[in-house]
């Protein structure tokens, strides 16, 4: 199972819960549970924080 830091990195890389589950050979429901357990906001983490000039 991914650690909190790994989850943050995957979400920041715009990966879906299903993609993360495939990497760790688990179900996407388990990933959702981990996100909730670690009190993460996947919507905020997946936002683009880069500006184009």
Features:
53 residues, mainly alpha, 58% helix, elongated
Give structural notes.
- With 53 residues, the chain is an all-alpha fold.
- The chain has 4 helices and no strands.
- The radius of gyration is 11 Å and the shape is elongated.
- The N and C termini lie far apart (39 Å).
> Rg from C-alpha positions?
11 Å
Number of helices: 4
Q: Give the helix proportion (percent range).
A: 55-70%
The class by helix and strand makeup works out as mainly alpha
Q: Between the first and last Cα atoms, what is the distance in angstroms?
A: 39 Å
Summarize the helix and strand pattern as letters. HHHH
Unreliable stretches, pLDDT < 50, 5 or more residues?
Answer: none
User: What characteristic shape results from the CA principal axes?
Assistant: elongated
Q: How big a fraction of the residues is strand?
A: under 5%
Query: Describe the biggest sheet?
Result: none
Average pLDDT taken over every residue: 86
How many E-type strands?
0
Characterize this entry briefly:
The protein has 53 residues and is an all-alpha fold. Helix 2 crosses helix 3.
What topology emerges from the helices and strands here?
Elements: H1 4-12, H2 17-23, H3 28-37, H4 42-46
Helix pairs in contact: 2-3
